Structures are given as structure tokens and as C-alpha cells.
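REQUEST FORM: STRUCTURE PREDICTION
Request ID: SP-0412
Submitted by: Lab K.M.
Chain count: 1
Length (residues): 368
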Amino acid sequence: MPASENLRISNEFAEITSDVAGSITNQRPFLGDITNLADNGCQDVKGKLSTRQHYRRESHAALRPRTSGYGPGQAPAPFTGAARPLAARPSVPPMPQTWMALEDASDPTNPQECKEYESEIVAGLFAEETVHMPRPDYMAFQTDLNGKMRAILIDWLVEVHMKYKLCRETLYLAVSLIDRYLARQPVLRSRLQLVGVVGMFVAAKFERIHPPPVVDFVYITDNTYTKEDIMSMECSMLSALSFDVAVPTQAHFFDYLLKSNQCNAEEYRALVDYLLELALVDVRMLKHAPSRLVSAALLLSNEVVGRPAWPQRMVQISRYSDTALRGCADELRALLRAAPSGALQAVRKKYSLQQHCSVARMLKVMEA
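STATUS: Completed
RESULT:
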């Protein structure tokens, strides 16, 4: 590799680690022990957190696990899956007009859009998405895990994904790998974080030319797991999935349906992303196919910004009617309203940043 390329990669990694160290100070601690759950929810147990400093890399200091909050024979409260009743909210004022701009986001000169093959590719995605979906009730068969533990894990992985500046496809593929593996293999709670980092590791290797090295995933767990643990779990995960890594996720339908919706404003894209990542954390949303989740997020976003909710054009392109999407859209609306007071704040903090148009803060102000 040329010296100039080595220097470029070194400078890029230095920028990433500097960004982690600089921006992590005032955020909540990253994933601790995955068993650190209170009986009444996902709160930390007595706020216990190791203060030992990592001697190798400050950028990973906030990623160290917390101590376990359970004694022998203790277990978390069962996850009932019942949604909290939501108070009625007043109607919100219309969004800025820039959010409602109609524009065609397609670029016929871009060879990567594969316009001549688009219809066949999309038809294949619709046909295959349900084949690879995990059982939505798989958590009932995990004797040592529950939905709250998974929520903590995904919430933490959202932060890891953001700090390493990974692409959208990596996050959705990582969550897909984790859920599909958990649907096939029983996992101890002490190994759930290992499954999470391996899912992100495999997804990053699949989607990036230069993924984070395995030693970085050892560091973010504060050496809770070794390099050998990660490599062994990677083999176990790939074997359990028959090396079937690439499957349709929300990321595959996102750009296609967004372009069809004819609204490509940056703020609007951030709003749709925000809704989809809120859905990632909630295990109850696994019952919805990726294309349904994206379509419902677009429908809800159209309603929020004051556009026609679901025109006939979108019914034909998405293959879902307004009626078919209404239940999923209502569940997304409930997640959106509950986000400010939720125990897990990684997604909301992410979309409160200027780089994501601060859509989380803007929605909170408009609903106040």
C-alpha cells in the first residue's frame, strides 16, 4: 500500500478516535453489563460504574461494562410486551415548508442506481424479505434473555455505530444478524453483548472496505471478551445462519421508497431515519417486514409535515394500502411520543444533533 494511502487511513482513524473522545464526555455511559436491569424497567442499578481508566485508548473509556446488578438466582422482570397508554396530544403546527418540497431524488446518470434493473431488483427484495425475517416471538424461547436486555444492547450499538461513522446499511444488517442468530440459538445473558459486537463486526466487514479491526471491538467491551471470543462467536453466528449474511433490511427499501415519495429534503430524510431507528430498539416491531416499516415511517412523516399521507402512487409502488400501514404507523407514532421520556436515549440523542438536523428536538418543541 502506498505511503500516502497509509497516511490518509491513519489520519482518518485519528479523527474518528478524537471525535469519540471529544463527544462522549457528556453522554450517558455505553453498554454496561447486559444484566444491569431494574425490575421496573431498563434503569441502571444504583448507577454503579467502574471509574478505572483505560490505559490504552481514551476513546473507548466510556464503553466499559458496568458491574452486574443481580445476585445469585435473581432474574429480571419478564417482558410482557404491553404498550404504555399514551396521553392524548394536541395537534401540532405545520412543519417548515422546506420539509414538504417535492423533488425527484433520482439521478439517471448515476450508474449505481441501476435504473435498467431497478424493477427486477426491487421485486426480488419484496419476495425475499419475509423469508429471512426472524420469528417475532423468539424472545419467548430465550430462557436467560428478555426484550429489555435486547433493547439495551441495540441502544448501545446505535451509539457505537454513530461513533465509528458507519453507514446506514451496517446498522440494520447488524440488528438483523443479531435477531436471526438469537432466533436460532439460546444465548446466556453474559454472552449477549458478545453477540451484539460480533453482529456489528460482521456487518461492518460486509458493508465497508475498511471496517474497524477486531481489536477495537475488544476495547469497546473493556476486554470483557478476547479477540478469540469474538472470532469464535463470528464462526458460530455465520454457521448458525448458514453464511446467509446479505438479506433485505430497511436500508434496502429506504432510498427507493423515499424517491418514490418525492420528498428528499434533508430534514425529512432525518425524520424517517429517526422513526426507523426508534423501531430498531423495540422488539415488538420485529413482526413488521422491512418494507412495511419504511412505508409506515414515510406515511407518518407525511402526516407530521402536512403532506398527503399516502397517495395512490405510493400504494402502487410500496404494495401497501393506507389501511394496511395504519397499525404500524400508529405504533411508530407511539414510539415517537414516548421517546423523550424513555429510559434508553441513544437514538433520540443522535437525532438531536445538528448533523441529523436536530429533528428530535424540533419535534419536541413543536409538540410542547
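NOTES: The chain has 14 helices and no strands.
Reviewed by: T.R.
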